[in-house]
Design a protein that fits this description.
- The chain has 298 residues and is of the alpha/beta class.
- The protein is built from twelve helices and seven strands.
- A seven-stranded parallel beta sheet has the order 3-2-1-4-5-6-7, with helices on both faces.
- The longest helix has 29 residues.
- The radius of gyration is 21 Å and the shape is globular.
- It starts with a helix and ends in a 7-residue tail after the last helix.
- The protein binds NADP nicotinamide-adenine-dinucleotide phosphate.
Length: 298
């Protein structure tokens, strides 16, 4: 639908360009080209690597202009890699800070176009014994990113989408949202928040024209495990999904307006099913076996 709209509105621009050419003036023709209709706009937080990078690719391949947001130097490299596929703007922000969320929103507003789609995807994990090992600062920073920035950004972007009666929002939660996760206790709880929050939003917005899709990946081959310092765990060393497959599942679900999607492999789907149906105590024991530091060699 978006493509045909773009094509239809491109025609007058071509006509105008032809008119200028007959006047043998190069400058006005350039001006007219600059006025050509712009593509729909999408934003991907955490678009510099892993699932977010693959989501950004999919938006570009589907004729969107894309803003990617992340906090580290890898963002510029991601922008370079994506640039051959289309228009990509990189916004360097720490979304764990309120100022970072506001800065990203300012960049979205500054673009001038209505926001057609956003993947609120940036997230990190921590791993270890909550009482004896983990630093509270890291736990709180993770909550600030995975929970607080998700709520804040959703609040900022959804208002104008609802006014417009149009918009697609993809939230990256996790199958971790379905069960307690010893040695990743806070992380699992952040994802339970995201799944609950998005299920509720979807109901509130059901007649608004704005769709809310929850992406629930299983273990996926990204920087996530290294960043969480959990490479010695069974889950980190086990089989993992390809982030391109996970992103594709999420992208397709978002475009179809599907409520939620577990991605991608049968292993991830079976893990999600087990987490859903097992008593919490049993699911917690299974989670502990996968995520306990050193579990890869125990
Ligand atoms: N990998 C898995 O097994 C798995 C499973 C289920 C759910 N998930 C979820 O999938 C999402 C994407 O993670 P991933 O697996 O693709 O991991 P990833 O490759 O580490 O990507 C994380 C992305 O988030 C960005 N990010 C991290 N902290 C940020 C901050 N403070 N401000 C702005 N951006 C920040 C990173 O950018 P910088 O490098 O610049 O910080 C990066 O672009 C997360 O929400 C994660 O919880 C992952």
């Amino acid at each position: 639908m978006k493509k045909s709209t773009a094509k239809a509105s491109r025609k007058p621009a071509k006509k105008a360009a032809a008119k200028k050419v007959t006047k043998k003036s190069a400058k006005p023709a350039k001006k007219t080209a600059a006025k050509a209709p712009r593509k729909p706009l999408a934003v991907v937080t955490g678009g510099s690597s892993g699932i977010g990078f693959e989501l950004a690719k999919l938006f570009l391949l589907n004729d969107y202009d894309v803003i990617i947001a992340a906090e580290n130097a890898g963002l510029a490299n991601a922008q370079k890699r994506l640039a051959p596929m289309g228009n990509v703007k990189a916004v360097k922000v720490d979304l764990a800070k309120e100022s970072g969320v506001k800065k990203l929103y300012a960049a979205i507003k500054a673009d001038g176009r209505p926001l057609d789609a956003i993947a609120i995807n940036a997230g990190v994990g921590t791993n270890g014994d909550f009482v004896r090992d983990l630093k509270i600062k890291n736990e709180i920073d993770m909550i600030s990113l995975n929970v607080v920035s998700t709520v804040h950004l959703a609040k900022l972007v959804l208002g104008s989408m609802v006014k417009r009666g149009k918009g697609r929002v993809l939230f990256t939660s996790s199958i971790a949202s379905l069960a307690p996760g010893p040695y990743m206790a806070t992380y699992y709880a952040t994802k339970a928040f995201v799944s609950s929050f998005t299920d509720a939003l979807r109901n509130e917005l059901k007649d608004s024209g704005v769709t809310i899709t929850t992406l629930m990946p299983g273990a996926t081959e990204t920087n996530f495990f290294r960043r969480a310092g959990m490479e010695d765990t069974a889950v980190a060393q086990g089989s993992k999904d390809d982030p391109a497959d996970v992103a594709k599942d999420g992208f397709d679900a978002m475009m179809a307006g599907t409520d939620k999607i577990v991605a991608h492999s049968m292993t991830s789907k079976l893990n999600a099913l087990a987490e859903r149906i097992l008593p919490a105590g049993l699911a917690a024991s299974m989670g502990a076996a996968e995520s306990k530091p050193g579990s890869a060699t125990q």
